[in-house]
Design a protein that fits this description.
alpha/beta; 255 residues; single chain; five-stranded parallel beta sheet
Amino acid sequence: MTQQKGKLYLVPAPLDFGCDVQAPLQDALPLGTLQTAAGITHWICENAKSARAYLKRIDEVTPLAAALQAQNIQELPREVHKKGDHAGQFDARPLLAAALEGHDIGLLSEAGMPAVADPGSSVARAAHDLGLTVVPLTGPVSLLLALAASGLNGQNFAFVGYLPQDASERQTRIRELEALALKSGQTQLFIETPYRNAALLQALVQTLQHNTRLAVARGLTLASAHVRSETVKSWRAKPEATTDERLPAVFAIGR
């Protein structure tokens, strides 16, 4: 008799990772997603410690199928975690061995949807190669939430990841993205490590043309969430007040 294969579930996480205040889990994710996650006992994640912390929060809403200490948790290799896995060079098939034995596996990111602006695409790709069913569960995706709230073009947009840290290279990249956005109408979305958000915002306000629209969405899904979308001229006239640098943010520019 042929062994029935398990499925790979892409399990979204709340967007409050690293924040001092956490939103109630049931406010950020549907009950159906939490119930499905609670039934999974095998996991692939970026960090086992934060994965266990998330599972503990799930258990408070709907009981886990296995005790926390009995959960089988595998971490993605450090180089995948730090540098991403979107180029197709990492073979994630060994991580999915339990699915070939009939166990469902959950894929977790630190925040939001795995494989979107986070590692995990190699795992989904490997699952398809192994003939496994891949099931994305419903939950928050910061990029789309920010785009929807920005008032910028939601019919044509691109996520370009992180901008260079070097000031000169970052300025050049900002001008390249602005030229593309203004010429094509394509909204350009990007992110930064929270403690560098202030420096990136300053570079954007100083570099962009005054009529370019700049949107910044901070702390999405949290009670402290704030979205500002104005022309750069308005940003210069009314600089942003000091905010919590630990809040994750999404930046967008366009017409």
